[in-house]
Amino acid sequence: MSTHTQENCVEISVSDTGLGIDKETRDRVFDLFFTTKEVGKGTGQGLYITHRVVVEKHGGTIEFQTKEGKGTTFIVRIPRNGRTSLSDEELMRN
Asked: Of 11, 21, 2, whose CA–CA distance to 71 is shortest?
């Protein structure tokens, strides 16, 4: 994990050395209820909620870089001005 401050935002990067994200999964990573875990092991809500908080509530971005067989890095950028466009109640609604 690493953090950096830039003029307009804070950047947080989290990396792993896992299997990476396959091509079929990449477009669905932030979809609600999408999971690659076996039934009963994941809810498919974690990255969806993370995306909503970062993008919709704070006006930031979240993206990832991945290489199959090498790992994945998620990069979160949050504006330093702390923009909030949704209330907590609105954010938790689907």
From this structure: 21
Q: Of 4, 21, 94, nearest to 52 (Cα)?
A: 94
The pTM is what?
A: 0.80
Sorted by where each starts, the structural domains of the chain and their CATH numbers stand as 2-92 (3.30.565.10)
Task: Measure the CA–CA gap between 67 and 79, rounded to whole angstroms.
Answer: 28
Count of Cβ atoms closer than 10 Å to residue 85 Cβ: 11
φ/ψ of residue 76, rounded to 5: -110, 130
- 39-68: per-residue pLDDT in tens? 888 899 999 999 999 999 899 999 999 999
Tell me the C-alpha distance between 29 and 21, whole Å: 9
